[in-house]
Amino acid sequence: MVQQLLGEAASIEESEQQTISTINRLLVKKLGKEFIIKIEDVDWLESSGNYVNLHIGSRIYPLRATLTALSKQLEVQGFCRIHRSYGVKLDKVESITPLPSGDSEIKLTTGKVLNLSRRYKE
Q1: What topology is assigned to 2-90 in CATH?
Q2: 3-class secondary-structure state, position 18
């Protein structure tokens, strides 16, 4: 019951075929409902303990996965790791502003500002 309230998600393709390397949709269970999330709709990813929060506009869908594993799977669809806690879809990046510390700030088309760590700048 607690897991249903927190939300769980699994790749639809993952349950059908393990050989597919491109994920197009995720099945997300949140608050007793199931949602099919298109990867192309996801703006950015946020690590949250054992979950990755998928941000779509103002909505958040939790996925039971690590940011490292999910980022690698979604690289072919234009996602990039920008921080130990964040990943973004490159098409959603509006601007990058360098900071004196060597890090940068990324502004998304949604208006959200995220930190770009110097470790992930490349």
Answers
A1: OB fold (Dihydrolipoamide Acetyltransferase, E2P) (2.40.50)
A2: coil
